[in-house]
């Protein structure tokens, strides 16, 4: 994406731009999480319960 500007950037400028992009995507994810929280009417207790749940796929033993 930065190559599209066809301009030499200092290392500091490149770091700042990468941070801006990371912040942008963080805001998108944060907004989406807020929307889901509102739609599903999650409470702090719900989040606490989810933090301690395990949703792993059980391993199936194959015949040896």
UniProtKB/TrEMBL annotation:
Residues 40-51 have a biased composition (Basic and acidic residues). This is Uncharacterized protein. Residues 40-64 are annotated as: Disordered. It comes from the Bacteria. The lineage of its organism: Bacteria, Pseudomonadati, Bacteroidota, Cytophagia, Cytophagales. It comes from Larkinella punicea.
């Amino acid at each position: 994406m930065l190559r599209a500007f066809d301009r030499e950037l200092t290392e500091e400028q490149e770091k700042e731009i990468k941070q801006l992009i990371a912040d942008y995507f963080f805001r998108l994810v944060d907004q989406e999480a807020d929307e889901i929280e509102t739609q599903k009417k999650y409470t702090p207790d719900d989040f606490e319960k989810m933090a301690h749940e395990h949703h792993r796929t059980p391993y199936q033993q194959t015949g040896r």
